[in-house]
C-alpha cells in the first residue's frame, strides 16, 4: 500500500472502536495538550505503524509509547493506555528503537490488555499528531470500528 493511500491518510495503529480523544479520561490528552487526534478502544493487542516513517521516540523504561516522524516531517505519537506508565513496562513489549525505519502496518508495540485492565488502567490507544504545522486534521468517524494497518483514521491536508 505504501506510505499513504490516495486519501493521504494515516492508518489505524490498532484494531478497535474509535472514540473521541476528548472522551479519554486523561486531561493531558482530552484537552489536546500534546496534540489533536483520535482514541481507539482496542480489540487486538498489537500496535502497528500508521505510515512509513522513522521512530523518533520510544519510552524505554515503560515501552508504552512510540513517536514517529512520517511524510513531510509530520510527527505522530501512539500511547498505549491511560496512566499505564505506572506499570513500568509490565505487560508491554516495544518492538522498535529510536532511528528504526518502519513501514505502514509494521508491528511497533505488543501489549497485554488483561494485565493493563486487571491493574486498574484503561487500555485505550491514543493516536495524536504532535506537530501538525497548523494544518487541518480530519478524523475518522468517532464511532467506527477500524482494522489496524488497513483503515484510515486521520487525514492530514498537509500531506
Characteristic key phrases:
3-stranded antiparallel β-sheet, 8-stranded antiparallel β-sheet, 6% helix, single chain, 159 residues, globular
Entry summary:
This protein has 159 residues and is mainly beta. Helices cover 6% and strands 43% of the residues.
Walkthrough of the structure:
The chain has 159 residues and is mostly beta strands. Helix content is 6%, strand content 43%. The strands form three sheets. Strands 9-5-6-7-11-3-2-13 form an eight-stranded antiparallel sheet. A hairpin with a 3-residue loop joins strand 6 (65-70) and strand 7. The radius of gyration is 14 Å and the shape is globular.
Please compute the radius of gyration using only Cα atoms. 14 Å
Number of strands: 14
Q: Write down the secondary-structure element order.
A: EEHEEEEEEEEHEEEE
Number of alpha- plus pi-helical segments: 2
Provide the fold topology.
Elements: E1 9-11, E2 16-19, H1 27-30, E3 36-42, E4 46-48, E5 53-58, E6 65-70, E7 74-82, E8 92-94, E9 101-102, E10 107-111, H2 113-118, E11 122-131, E12 137-139, E13 145-146, E14 152-156
Antiparallel strand pairs: 1-14, 2-3, 2-13, 3-11, 4-10, 5-6, 5-9, 6-7, 7-11, 8-10, 12-14
